[in-house]
Amino acid sequence: AQKVTQAQTEISVVEKEDVTLDCVYETRDTTYYLFWYKQPPSGELVFLIRRNSFDEQNEISGRYSWNFQKSTSSFNFTITASQVVDSAVYFCALSDMYSGGGADGLTFGKGTHLIIQP
Amino acid sequence: EAGVAQSPRYKIIEKRQSVAFWCNPISGHATLYWYQQILGQGPKLLIQFQNNGVVDDSQLPKDRFSAERLKGVDSTLKIQPAKLEDSAVYLCASSLPGVYEQYFGPGTRLTVT
After folding, report:
1. Residue-wise pLDDT tens digits, A50-66
2. Hey, which of A25, A110, B23, B88 has its CA 20 to 30 A from A55?
């Protein structure tokens, strides 16, 4: 069975600080996909990034960066120089690949509520 | 490109009543998913369709929930009869074949009183 743990329920920082959101996952599959989604107060889930289990290269996109470590089953997300608009709930999610060639449904963590104070 | 459309956006019903939600995925997206998100939790997969066939419905409470995607495009999720614990946001998502990112609609917020 798959499981995603986001131990941080809520994080509050002052604008311009760096913040890291933790994600630990469990799966028996050797091929899987990891995701981060953002859910702003409007409620719509916004896709941020996908990583494949066979590609441990870390990624930076603007102020966002992701650290994938297969050895510790972690996929952490860092926002550099945070802004008030980054305030949202962030979800880490896990998916296997099914035989039809697409992704299985996502298993989500409980989310981390990030509050950026001005 | 239009996103995933869902209706209604809000629904309030009494327990034991029936309710239906509608979803129209992004054009060309063969895979469609329904999720239930209870307040304060992450979304939970209810059912996954590939075209008009069911791929996974292992977490769908089949005694009261049903879903269909008859023509492989839009989909309907029904609850009959509703219980208080069904109060949640019901999210629809879609993805392209062979692509793993799922794109979500705005959701339907259901309140059962």
Report:
1. 888 887 777 788 899 99
2. A110
